[in-house]
Amino acid sequence: MIHPINATAERPNRALPAGMHEIPVGMHRRLAHVQPGLTPLAVRAQHLQLVSTALTQAGVEHFVVPGTEDTSSAIGVRDTQRGRVAQTLRSLFSRSPGYIQRRVPVQRTSELLHLGARESSWQGLETVDVLRAIWFQADLSGELVYGVEYGCDIEFWREEEGRLLPPRINRGASFLLPEGEMTLVSPHRFSRLAPPLRTEQAPRQRRWGRKPEPAGLPTRREFVCTGPDEITFPIDVVYTWVDSDDPAWQRRRAEASGDVFHEESASAGRYINRDELLYSMRSLHMYAPWVRHIFLVTDDQVPHWLDESAEGITVVSHREIFRETDRLPVFNSHAISAQLHRVPGLSEHFIHFNDDVFVGRPITPHEFFLPNGASKYYPDTVRIPMGPVRPDDLPHEVARKNVRALLEERFGRTIIDAMKHTPVPLRRSVLEEMEREYAEVFRATAAARFRSGTDIDVGTCMYPYYSYFTGRGVPDSIPYAYLHLSMVQLSKKLDRLLKRRDAAVFCVNDSFTTEDDVADQEALIHPFFEAYFPLPSPYEKPAQR
């Protein structure tokens, strides 16, 4: 977990090494290294590299282990090397202050962390099978601390009956032969937070993944394989966004507003811009570095802070994705989402983000897709109202009821659950198939400038069930939070989310906001966003960063 800290906490009386602070974390105060631009994946790699380098310099043979956690790392050492490992790590902690934690078996005491440079911290080492080396890392903003979850574990493997046995389960092997071939890997090799490296052996992926990095960490050759649980296909993100402060856009919307179907359809609150997109992209940069490319779909608009020349992002005009452009401009999210599979250069697997949806903690692509390519969807407890379309139905209810009628006719199933306001995993080929099968309703939805009575909700209603009924989608759950800016005790709910940071994704929605609400809401939401996502993304202009 990434813990919020108090940047104005009183400094301790004792002198600390340069670049360090003593900060409150939970019930304790911890020594923390302060560095700029930290991301979870970078912190993980830094700690793994630190321990491996120290062991290499001390002549301790070791190998990186594919552990079961994605933010922490693991190194295997023969259990006969316990004494040398303790000596090496104590020396390392004396140069770079940090902590040691006994992981297997877990120490039964209220104080689970011990200063790694203290001799007393290493007493009883012969009874411990896994140790975790921990360096708390604080961002320069003073808002984040990367803690225990980003440590590097040292596993003591024992030799028994001609086999090396691990002290706990891993994602690689239940045992190794005592003597085996070694190879070198990148620090990111065994974390699912990172995309695969570009390799000549995988030509279809050559343009995807991390640029080749120095492969300087030793591991066993047996561990370097692609298992059936790994996702090897590229995944893009598509944002839909509008700048409601743009006078040209306001003029286009006013000229087209005669087509309003329902007063909520043209609600100004649907288009209010609080720079949510900036913070949503920051959340992707911090917590989902495996995303291959970001496509920003707009009505010929570009955020003032966006660096269009940045690698990994492309701005796409509505004119590039609508087959029939004579009805543009369009202000109907149903129409736009029904065209997203037309984005030029889009990968087969992609995730649709609205700009009010955020990644709340480190997350792997497995939250959105199965390794076999199937997409996931996340049913809500909210039900789609039963019965036919009624005059008093809200536009989103109309679009869902229209979908239900189509799927009942095609599959003989009645859909009931709406979906959570999460990122939406999609497959381009499935959307193309849906458009071929339901060409007329897709065309009618695309032609509706505002939400209309003939709309279908393609992304968050039709696609999940169609993919499920045809064997290419599965229901799942995801740690999730939903906040509406008009909800009671909004401030307390934002504070709770910031403190716990336990939601994999969350939505901050404002669909019924009026212009009168904006100032009060911004006084709450901007400080929250800055505290949660203080690290600028590479998509921001240098001046913005």
Percent helix range: 10-25%
- Beta strand %: 15-25%
Return the CATH architecture of the largest domain: Alpha-Beta Complex
Main pleated-sheet profile: 7 strands, mixed
What is the radius of gyration?
A: 26 Å
Query: Terminal Cα separation, in Å?
Result: 25 Å
The dominant shape is elongated
Could you say how many structural domains there are in total?
2
Q: Which regions are unreliable across 5 or more consecutive residues at pLDDT < 50?
A: 4-13, 198-207, 259-266
Key features?
545 residues; alpha/beta; Spore Coat Polysaccharide Biosynthesis Protein SpsA, Chain A; seven-stranded mixed beta sheet; five-stranded mixed beta sheet; 11 helices
Please characterize this protein's 3D structure.
A hairpin with a 5-residue loop joins β9 and β10. 41% of the residues are buried. It is built from eleven helices and 26 strands. With 545 residues, the chain is α/β, with parallel strands linked by helices. The strands form seven sheets. Strands 4, 5, 6, 7, 8, 11 and 12 form a seven-stranded mixed beta sheet that branches. α7 crosses α8. It has two domains: 222 residues, no CATH class; 298 residues, Alpha-Beta Complex (Spore Coat Polysaccharide Biosynthesis Protein SpsA, Chain A), CATH 3.90.550.10.
